[in-house]
Amino acid sequence: MNQLLILAMVAVIALGAIVVIIILPQEYVGDAKPQDGQQAEKVYTPQEVWDNQASLQGQEIKIRGDVVELDEACTMMACLDDPCCNRCSGWLGYEISSDEKLHFKGEYLGEDVRCQGDTCVQECYPFEPSEYLVDAIVVRDQTYDTYYLELVGFEEA
Question: Apex CA 67: angle with CA 66 and CA 71, to 5°?
Answer without folding.
Answer: 130
